[in-house]
Each structure stands twice: as C-alpha cells, then as structure tokens.
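Tokens for chain A. Residues wanted.
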C-alpha cells in the first residue's frame, strides 16, 4: 500500500448548489470527477482546520443514501481521505447513513465533519442523479463560505493524492484500515436511535401501537427504511409491514423519492381508502424530508411546522418550550402567528438548511422548517424525516386527536394560510434567467400597484443578514407581498441537475373558519393568474401550467 499522486485537470461546474454538488451519475462517473471534488474539499479542510493541524488526527463520518454509485464512491473517498491525514473514518455499514444520521453521528462522536453521498429526493439509478455534500463539526451543512472555497479550489486543483490500498469490506462492522487511517464500520441506526430515545416518550408510542394505532410509513425504497423499521417495528412494536418500500435500492425501485402528494401517490391512495390507517407518512431519498398524512388529509409542510411549534411542549424533548423558530422565506407565514402568540422569535431565512445552523448553534431557535417537506430541531443540524414522524405520532398520542382534527383545530384558532408551490420543470436556463431578470427589473415599479382587490406593499429580491455572523446572502428570491398578507414568490431551484426549475410559491391568509375548506388550487387561482401577469411565466417557459403543483 502506498500513497499515489495523480495529475488531474479541473472540471468546470463543480459549484455546490442549495445542498451540495448534484449531477447526473454519468457526470460523477467520469474519471477523476469525484476525485477532483473530494480532493478540493480535503485541501480546503486541511487549510482551515483548527490549530493549523487541518485534518491530521481528525475523525470524519461517511455515508450515503445507498443510491447507485454510493458503494464505489465510498471506496474512492476513503482512499483520498487516508492520503489527506485523516486519522479515522466512521462509515455507515454498507456505505449507508441517512442525512440526519450523519448529523447525529458527527455530534455524538464529536467528529471533525462528515461527507454525505446523496442527491436527496432526486431520482437514482445509472441514469439518475448522484450528489455529495460536506457537513461541519456542528453536524450541519457547510456554510456558503466553505462551499465557495471548495468551488474555488476545484478550479485550480492539479493533483489528487490517494492510497492504492485494496477496497475495504464495507458490509462488515468493526475496524479496518486504509494506510494509517482507521475505518470503523458502524451500525447506521444506533446513534440516531439513541437521539430519538432522548426526545420522545417511547413508552407512550409503544402503548399506542399496543392499543392498535395504525400507521403506514412509505420509505420510498430509500435510506429511511432501515431507520423506520428498526425504530417503529423493532423498538416500538408496530406491526410488521407498517413501513413499506423499506429496503434501500440503488434506483429507489424506479420511484422518485420525493415525499409529496404527486410522487408519493401510492401513500395518498392508501390513506384515502375507507380502512386507511390512522397515520401516514413518507420520507425522501436521504430521509431528511417528510410528508405527514391523515386519513384522506394531507398536511402541508408549512402547517406542519406551525402545529409542531404550537404543541411542542407535549413532546418530552421540548417540554420546557422553544427558544425560537425559523422558516425559509418561501415557507408560509403560518408559524409566524404561532410564534407571536407564544412570544418567541421567528426568523425568516433563505432556502437551504445551512442557513438554520447558526441560529441553532447560537441557541436562538429550537425548531426549523421549510415548505420543501423539511422539518427539524436542535437535536441535529439537518432536517429529519423520521423525527418529524415520531413528533406527529407523539402529538396524536398526547392529545388523542387525529391528524385532521389537529390541523382543523389549528386553523380555527390561528386562521389558515392557503399555500401551494408550482414547479415549472425543465425550463431552458436562458429562459428562466430572462424571467427572473425581467422580474428584478420590474421590482421598483411594483409597490403600490393594484391587482384586483389587492395592492402590493412590498416587492423585493430577498436578502438575508445572518443575525449571528453578520454574513449577507443576496438575491434569494423575488417576493411580492400584498396588503392582505398574500405573498407571491419566485425563485429558481438550486437542487436540480437538468435545465432550470422555476418555483412559484403562492400564499394567502383566511381567518374565517367557514371559508377554510376551499380546494387549495382554487383558493389560490387568482394569485397564480397574477403571478403569470407579472412575470410572463407562460411567455418565458412556453408552458401553460406547472409540471407539479403541491
Ligand atoms: C435542499 C435543502 C433544503 C431546500 C431544498 C429545496 O433539500 O437542504 O433546505 O429547501 O433543497 O431547494 P430548491 O428549492 O433549491 O430545489 P434536499 O432535501 O434536496 O437536500
């Protein structure tokens, strides 16, 4: 075994997006593509490490969502890490670790950081997507400062250092080595399950299943399966078969592992049947997203965050109340109303879980959430699908109420924020950029303009000043806010791998309980029309409607 130095030349386009570097598998499989990116990351970490020691003597966590190329990439990364002075790698067995589990392991084992192999909810398989991201010692996604430094390094990287050691046995628990570096293959579930036991009343949940509480969790053939099976069926006594699509497959069984009503249609269909279980839920590819479903009743992620905030004290881990809450800008303002009533701070951040990290670290917030089916708390520094499922199960156990009645009670108390997201997928990049540029140019003329019964009170390109480190993030999405509180938001997705995806977020508030049961798309139709009027969506995209409306 020895360390080899291999010459390389930079690839363009290795700038991480909303959550890491995501590309087609075929792109990642090009010789040196992954190596260049990982070498750049290791170089930056070596330059930035504490005490000037960089990665020397440090522990990294490594694992992924099990998608195609995961197992090969793990071996490649181990060989590069060993050449970079890393002392120890904690590797999930089989190369498997969910995103929240990576975060939990980093925190519990006080690792230097972790590498997550995932393209999240993006489809997998040889023709699908692959991805890689770095999480720091707080367990959370790397800051923009770090990802920009890595990107800069990818533009100049000229050599890769790697061990020529043989592959290790990633399916066998225990300690092996690559050169001087120890690799401990760990149980991917153990650390994560320990965190869940600290937060939830497992006896209460066990009692619910013992009394016949029924549940269907769709793991979408992705990494959440082993976690949900071990905790729900193994530890809490849920009947076998409660977790479906539980085995992680390299191509997610052909599913699009994005837990929304469109892609998790099988779960929605089950929950609409007369004998539907009490509670339904789904998770995405790397198990950080969640969708909560009652009997024939889907909970929007924004409402989920608002309800969790309102009832948090019912869950043992949050019995002393919340320090504050945070939501991404396009997430509905439902949680703002709850925070106001509770007298706690509510922060509005750009899209991307990384923006919550500083607030959580500084003890300014306890719960966070996003419209993109993500909720999480200070227990880790990622959103967490199974945690959200256990939280909602706990709320049902503590109140004896169904998902639907909890949500309807919430609307009656706080009002309803009707909310939808329209995705225009596969738009030509130039057309999407032209649409956004047109909107930006129109911003100064919009405040005060009248659209039907509403007029615009604020029109801007959202900028965020991090209240902890003062960093400024500009151009995070166009907001139109109206005098009745309605909002229309436009931004381009930062997680896709083909063309551009325009996201249009529509929201309006309804205080009157008698008017809270209108079908969502109908309730927001006038705002969709207004959005097209202002941005020329059909004109720019050539599409007469969204590809997905959730
Ligand atoms: C990632 C980020 C989330 C973000 C989401 C949507 O989720 O972690 O914070 O809300 O992307 O991003 P976009 O609208 O740019 O596509 P995930 O689950 O893909 O890692």
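Reply:
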């Amino acid at each position: 075994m020895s360390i080899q130095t291999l010459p390389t030349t930079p690839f363009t386009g290795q700038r991480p997006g909303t959550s890491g570097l995501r590309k087609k598998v075929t792109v990642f499989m090009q010789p040196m593509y992954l190596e260049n990116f990982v070498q750049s990351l290791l170089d930056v970490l070596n330059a930035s490490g504490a005490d000037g020691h960089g990665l020397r003597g440090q522990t990294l966590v490594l694992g992924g969502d099990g998608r195609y190329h995961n197992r090969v990439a793990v071996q490649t990364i181990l060989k590069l890490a060993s050449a970079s002075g890393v002392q120890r790698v904690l590797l999930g067995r089989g190369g498997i670790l969910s995103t929240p589990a990576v975060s939990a392991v980093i925190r519990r084992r006080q690792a230097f950081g972790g590498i997550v192999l995932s393209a999240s909810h993006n489809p997998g398989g040889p023709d699908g997507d692959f991805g890689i991201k770095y999480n720091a010692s707080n367990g959370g996604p790397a800051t923009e400062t770090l990802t920009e430094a890595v990107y800069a390094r990818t533009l100049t990287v000229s050599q890769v250092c790697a061990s020529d050691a043989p592959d290790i046995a990633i399916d066998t628990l225990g300690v092996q080595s690559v050169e001087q570096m120890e690799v401990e293959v760990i149980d991917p579930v153990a650390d994560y399950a320990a965190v869940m036991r600290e937060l939830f009343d497992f006896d209460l949940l066990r009692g619910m299943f013992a009394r016949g509480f029924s549940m269907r969790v769709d793991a979408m053939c992705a990494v959440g399966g082993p976690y949900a099976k071990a905790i729900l069926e193994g530890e809490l006594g849920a009947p076998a078969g409660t977790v479906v699509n539980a085995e992680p497959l390299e191509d997610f069984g052909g599913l699009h592992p994005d837990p929304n009503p469109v892609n998790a249609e099988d779960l929605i269909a089950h929950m609409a049947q007369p004998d539907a279980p009490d509670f339904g839920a789904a998770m995405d590819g790397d198990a950080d997203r969640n969708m909560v479903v009652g009997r024939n009743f889907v909970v929007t992620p924004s409402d989920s965050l608002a309800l969790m905030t309102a009832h948090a004290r019912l869950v043992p881990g949050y019995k002393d109340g919340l320090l504050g809450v945070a939501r991404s800008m396009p997430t509905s303002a439902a949680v703002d109303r709850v925070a106001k009533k509770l007298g706690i701070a509510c922060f509005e951040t750009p899209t991307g879980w990384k923006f919550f990290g500083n607030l959580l670290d500084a003890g300014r917030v306890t719960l966070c959430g996003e419209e993109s089916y993500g909720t999480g708390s200070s227990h880790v520094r990622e959103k967490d699908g199974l945690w959200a499922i256990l939280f909602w199960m706990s709320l049902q156990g503590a109140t004896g109420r169904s998902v639907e009645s909890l949500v309807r009670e919430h609307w009656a108390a706080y009002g309803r924020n009707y909310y939808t997201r329209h995705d225009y997928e596969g738009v030509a990049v130039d057309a999407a950029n032209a649409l956004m540029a047109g909107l930006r140019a129109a911003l100064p003329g919009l405040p005060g303009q009248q659209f039907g019964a509403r007029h615009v009170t604020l029109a801007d390109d959202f900028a965020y000043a991090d209240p902890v480190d003062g960093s400024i993030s500009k151009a995070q999405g166009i907001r139109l806010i109206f005098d009745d509180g309605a909002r229309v938001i436009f931004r381009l997705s930062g997680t896709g791998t083909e063309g551009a995806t325009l996201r249009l977020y529509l929201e309006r508030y309804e205080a009157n309980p008698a008017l809270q049961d209108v079908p969502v798309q109908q309730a927001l139709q006038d705002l969709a029309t207004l959005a097209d009027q202002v941005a020329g969506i059909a004109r720019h995209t050539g599409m007469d409607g969204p590809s997905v409306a959730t």
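The pocket of 1,6-di-O-phosphono-alpha-D-glucopyranose is lined by residues 18-19, 120-121, 284, 288-289, 328, 351-353, 370, 372, 374, 493-495, 503 (CB under 6 Å). The CA atoms of residues 486 and 508 lie 4 Å apart.
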